[in-house]
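Section 3.1: Structural characterization of target chains.
Under the original work plan, the team committed to producing a structural model for every single-chain target entering the pipeline before any wet-lab resources were allocated. The record below documents one such target. The sequence was received from the expression subgroup and is listed exactly as submitted; it comprises 287 residues.
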Amino acid sequence: MSRFAYVNGRFVRHGEAAVHIEDRGYQLADGVYEVWAVFGGKLADAAGHFARLWRSLDALKIAHPMSEKALTVVLREAIRRNKVVEGMVYLQVTRGVAPRDHAFPNPAVPPAVVITAKRVDRAVAEAKAAKGQSVVTVPETRWGRCDIKSIGLLPNALAKQVAREHGAVEAWFVDEMGLVTEGASSNAWIVDAEGRLRTRDTQANILRGITRSSLLDVIAEAGLPVAEQPFTVEEAKAAREAFITGAGTLVLPIVRVDGAQIGDGAPGPVATRLRRLYIERAKAAAI
């Protein structure tokens, strides 16, 4: 199947898509991105992702490339052209193309926009969730504005490589106090020894995950105890359950942390239930 990408106002074949050599995203990581899960050809958690996109752009003083209504049309067209029923759509906005200089272009240039979409085999994803996955821990090495969904992801890429080399699906960053902050591309959760769901609060230097936020609504509706409270690696290893959340992983049970077995080594009932409830809610609310 031919794939198509949206690049600065037009759709082109994926293999022919390109950006200018002086795009500030390419040279300076001067940009942001968003990823929507796609269910039934529709955008999941759409409002949350749009709100975070605008917030990230505003934080970096990058102009909004188009209205939310117009962007929704383009995202849907990317999904349609790529015949994605179940999958993901990726958006990247950079400050644009200008002669290389650390300071912003003066006068300002139009922001550059790239959108791609791809299919995800949900059967494979469900099999991975049913098996449970592993994470490893790495020192926190990122900048102080992880709340911005910046494309400057070198520490995250290095952490993901460590995870891959250890046969794990994700790496959890651990700060100087020994507390888990979040994953390289996900938020981290446990069900602690007392049965409470715990995840790092967003006042800390973490990304304000949209799947995380939606799951908190699901948890409230289910009446489960939850605390936005950090946890140590040792608390994670002693937890009843662990899992990660993100647009790519949804709610993914974790059964090993740094090789240590969590609980009985199988996905627990809470994570399994929350994955089902989240997917049901996301499908129902997708646009």
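DSSP finds eight helices and 15 strands in the chain.
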